[in-house]
# Entry
Amino acid sequence: MKKGHELISLQSQFITVGIDVSGLDEVQKYLNELVRSADPNTFNEWANRIGKTAKEICNDPDCKRIKLIKDGDGKIKFQFADKEAIECVIQAINRHQNSMPMIQQEIFKQLVTEFQRIERESIL
# Structure
């Protein structure tokens, strides 16, 4: 009888130790998102989306106040004609913030901080 009892105990140990497949799916989804969000093109996609939204907020369809400029390294930079244009970009970032991948959220949070500093210091 003792062997049977040990066998049952051993089986119950195997039953309690398992793999949560839905958990693995979530981990894989997170890792895929992390890889995608680290891609520089993902930043460019979000910068373009934010630029478009900011131009709508500022009623700047001709891009006279807000410009997105792609430099030789493939990076996108924002240029502003005035402080209100900066505020439009900040609003656009805030509007899209929760839809962005995690890394992009952090990058654009830092940009908001920098844009707010520029507004405060009246650099424009």
Remarks:
- The CA atoms of residues 54 and 92 lie 5 Å apart.
- The chain has five helices and two strands.
- The chain has one domain: 24-120.
